[in-house]
Specification:
8-stranded parallel β-sheet; Arginase, Chain A; binds manganese (II) ion; alpha/beta; 34% helix; 8 strands
Length: 315
């Protein structure tokens, strides 16, 4: 019965019904039938502080049943523009070893890449972005728009080079992203060492600290991001801790003084017209989200990213 249901038919049912896939999209059986796959990555084995993001995909799926299809400003329905489905969760086999778990992630996203499907991942801690980036097929290092309170360019922590504070340093070292076409937006919060900030600054990444976001304004930061990545293949990675914990408390390493929900929507909506090859929304940690609002914000951000991906895939 579900196979014959189109995305839009499923979305016309009352939103509280049926299996809560992301945005109530159809379940992906064969990725070749789809343009964009939403994927849950329930893994938080690489956090440096509070765990819980392994529960993110399930709660974001549940909150995403609040989503409706037609975008309020563009009036575009991404589900009309593209074939969009929910590929389920990465089937982890080795959760106690981060590098092995990353191998599981790489295998799953590699299959999607082989089928030519654009990935939209829902984490999970931010370490999941590295194995996803490894599966993006590109002739040269890709551009990155990274929205986060933290640069995630540290070298190692407690003996691990693959924790959620290191993915973008590894991605540069592995030649996956171009540091000169990488912009990190919303960086803030005190640190025990300046290492991550210093690495980003000295390697040519554009680091837009939150103070500068405030002085420049959201739209001019977005304009700078668009011009930095230009027409190069671009990935967007969105850490929910870029938001102020007043709006998104349910995350492992909250930092006050972040984006409001409204500002985050403006920022993402201003990133239109890019050659997007994938995106993720990470670090929603439901155990610290008693009201469920962080999951709702995460689901809404994911919808906005989906709209950008659908516009890119159908242009
Ligand atoms: Mn992060
Ligand atoms: Mn962060």
């Amino acid at each position: 019965m579900t196979e014959s249901r189109t995305a839009n038919q499923a979305m016309l049912a009352p939103r509280y019904m049926n299996i809560p896939t992301f945005m109530r999209a159809p379940i992906i059986e064969d990725p070749k039938d789809f343009d964009i796959a939403m994927v849950g990555v329930p893994y938080d084995g690489a956090v440096t502080n509070r765990p819980g993001a392994r529960h993110g995909p399930r709660e974001v799926r549940n909150a995403s049943s609040m989503m409706r299809t037609i975008h309020p400003t563009t009036r575009v329905n991404p589900f009309d523009a593209c074939r969009i489905g929910d590929a389920g969760d990465v089937p982890f086999t080795r959760v106690y070893e981060p590098e092995a778990a990353h191998g599981d992630i790489g295998q799953f996203f590699g299959c999607l890449a082989d089928a030519g499907v654009v990935p939209l991942a829902i984490g999970g801690d931010h370490s999941i972005t590295l194995p996803i980036l490894r599966t993006i097929e590109a002739k040269e290092p890709i551009a990155l728009i990274h929205i986060d309170a933290h640069t995630d360019t540290w070298d190692e922590w407690m003996g691990s080079r693959y924790n959620h504070g290191t993915p973008f340093r590894r991605a540069i070292e592995e030649g996956l992203i171009d540091p000169l076409r990488t912009i990190q937006i919303g960086i803030r919060g005190a640190q025990t060492s300046s290492e991550g900030w210093a690495y980003s600054e000295s390697n040519g990444l554009r680091v837009v600290y939150m103070d500068e976001v405030i002085s420049l304004g959201i739209e001019s930061v977005a304009e700078e991001a668009r011009s930095l990545v230009g027409s190069h293949p671009t990935y967007i990675s969105f850490d929910i801790d870029s938001l102020d914990p007043a709006f998104a408390p349910g995350t492992g390493t909250p930092e006050v003084g972040g984006f409001t929900s409204r500002e985050a929507l403006t920022l993402i909506r201003s990133l239109k017209g890019l050659q997007l090859v994938g995106a993720d929304m990470v670090e929603v940690a439901p155990p610290f989200d008693p009201t469920g609002n962080t999951a709702l914000v995460g689901a809404t951000i994911t919808y906005e990213l989906l709209c950008l991906l659908a516009a890119a895939a159908s242009s």
